[in-house]
Amino acid sequence: MTDPGQRGPAARRGRDRQARVLPAHPGARRAAERPTAAVVGGGIAGLAAATALAERGVAVTLYEREPHLGGRVGGWPTRLRDGSTVTMSRGFHAFFRQYYNLRGLLRRTDPALDRLAALPDYPLLHADGLHDSFRHVPRTPPWSALGFAALSSSFRLRDLRAMNPVAALPLLDVSVPEVYHRLDDISAYDFLETIRFPEQARHLAFEVFSRSFFADPRQLSAAEMALMFHIYFLGSAEGLLFDVPRSPFPEALWEPLAGYLARHGAQVRTGSPVEHVAPARGGGFEVAGVRDERRYDAVVLALDADGLRSLVARSERLGDPMWRQGVAQLRAAPPFLVTRLWLDRPVAPDRPGFLGTSAFGGLDNISVLNRWEDEAARWAARTGGSVVELHAYAVDPHTPRTSQERHLIEQLHRVYPETRAARVVDVRHEWRQDCPLFPVGGYTDRPAVRTSDPGLVVAGDIVRTNLPVALMERAATTGFLAANALLERWGVRGQSLWTVPDRGRVAVLRKVAAWAGNRESKRPGPRARERRALGGRRCRAG
């Protein structure tokens, strides 16, 4: 029997034959009596939880504070100075082929994922002229990592000879949660320093990934960076190319899913923030929103770090003291800026749809939306212009916003000089600070899916899980895990999940990593002392 909304193993897994399946807990197809559940938060995690619950007969009410769904992948209408109505969002998102569970969620309304378009490359550019590309890199490990090094202009033979291979061995056999036990007390920056990873390659490869967490490498846990290396290089055969929605996020992703939820009896209440949640007398929970207060058998908290911390602080009787203390310690990453420009002329025809950048004064990437998004393409065709989006992650919070916005556009002119002569038809600057921070040593303080109350579960990309997932895929996966925890309680079969392999996939490399780890742990000496010293070091900026 296949899971609801899925069309067999190939639809859920992808090309990687070593992808790992996590079978759902066995049980009845639907609940004998119809339980009720409130899902607080309409981002990816909340939508995944609501979908799995509603499909199995649970009476779901989804609460979302914003007037639109999708959370950090949401969108809303805005009117330009030329009279056009367009969709604005919080910026570009890459839908990698490793995102099995997120893609499974989208298949509910788009079985063949026709609403996603594949970008032909993932190019990276450094300010000194070095560039990298993933277009011709093999997808199967270990040839993927070796191919990247061989094809990359940022790897030089003398740099490779200077690297510390013993210090790099943890990257060869990443498993969860062991990688956090080994590397969570080290910053990504310090770990790469210890490896003596080539600085130019570091900017073009690892820093791009670390900054996708909206954090400076000096603030990011090395465990999160190592996990990303595993997911994309040595753990998965899906490669580093990705898909993007052909239409704005609401049209391509969330409006169809809202209709799907409604057909399964779920109530979707946008523009409905939740004020507090409290255990109800006799069991269940009272959920108080701006409109009314209702009782539910279970609650899924699918909020960002600030939203979860704030709601729990207002809900004095929710959870146990240790859980509440962990939630209270959650923090958001530094602010980030998304600048979208509607220009009166096109960029050069050879500009890629997406470009990762490094050392361009805070500019982290450039997207040319009219290369793939139909709404932007229609505007560009009608006006003869182009729609360009700029990202700046981990911005210094003390930097004046107007100067940062101006500086970001100046960096665009450096990278794409033809834009200097373009007139800006309109511009939108989106400043946000609600992405989770994964600080050095912070793993154990993050909440898990389950809490001390079996009717209260948590989902989101901040949530700790023993699976090799990150970013949007962590949000979708924990949403399904939260639903599964409740369904198991009610004796209902849950959602099967897929992940990349949960260990290093090359047996020889795993043995080398294990041998070196055992050797270093048993033999005191300079390397062992260095490893112990590094393990106790905190990140410089954290």
Describe the structure.
- The chain has 542 residues and is an alpha+beta fold.
- The chain is built from 18 helices and 22 strands.
- It has a seven-stranded mixed sheet with strand order 9-8-17-18-19-16-20, sandwiched between helices. It has a five-stranded parallel sheet with strand order 11-3-2-15-21. The chain has a three-stranded antiparallel sheet with strand order 6-10-7.
- Helix 2 packs parallel to helix 16.
- The radius of gyration is 23 Å and the shape is globular.
- Mean pLDDT is 88; it is low at 5-11 and 523-542.
The DSSP helix count reads: 18
- How much beta, percentage-wise? 15-25%
Biggest pleated sheet: 7 strands, mixed
End-to-end distance: 49 Å
Question: What is the global morphology?
Answer: globular
Structural category: alpha+beta
Give the structure's gist in a few sentences:
With 542 residues, the chain is α+β, with helices and mostly antiparallel strands. Helix content is 34%, strand content 19%. It contains 18 helices and 22 strands.
List the helices and strands and how they pair.
Layout: H1 9-12, E1 20-22, E2 36-40, H2 44-55, E3 59-63, E4 75-79, E5 85-89, E6 95-96, H3 100-106, E7 116-118, E8 124-126, E9 131-132, H4 143-151, H5 157-162, H6 165-168, H7 178-183, H8 188-195, H9 199-211, H10 222-234, E10 242-245, H11 249-263, E11 267-269, E12 274-279, E13 285-289, E14 293-296, E15 298-301, H12 305-314, H13 321-328, E16 336-343, E17 354-360, E18 363-368, H14 374-383, E19 386-392, H15 401-415, E20 424-432, E21 456-458, H16 471-489, E22 497-499, H17 507-522, H18 526-535
Parallel strand pairs: 2-3, 2-15, 3-11, 8-17, 15-21
Antiparallel strand pairs: 1-22, 4-5, 6-10, 7-10, 8-9, 12-13, 13-14, 16-19, 16-20, 17-18, 18-19
